[in-house]
Amino acid sequence: MRLPETRDLFVRTLEFPASAETVVKTVGGEALDAPNGTSETIGEVLERCPEEEFYSADDLYDSLVMYVSDAFIGRKFYDDRGSQPADPDEEVSF
Fold this sequence. Notes:
It holds the Pfam family DUF5789. By secondary structure, the protein is α+β, with helices and mostly antiparallel strands. It has 4 helices and 4 strands; from the N terminus they run αβαββαβα. It has one domain (3-71). The strands form 2 sheets. The chain has a two-stranded antiparallel sheet with strand order 1-4. It has a two-stranded antiparallel ribbon with strand order 2-3. The longest helix is centred in the middle third of the chain and has 11 residues, at 57-67.
């Protein structure tokens, strides 16, 4: 399952507010597919999350996005606007 699809899953299968324990029991086994081909389960992600209760599907989704592994963020330190100047006092011409 792709990460953006989880919000709909939460709406369909959970009643809110929901405890973290209930979320893990209900949908914790669902695998999340990272762009690089690896996966981890919702339960594995929530093990890193300190929240004990979620008040809405959006609240749960936001927590999930915050605690997924680095495999979900794409190219680290990628900057499509060019490199940053090494010297902060260096003038940049646009």
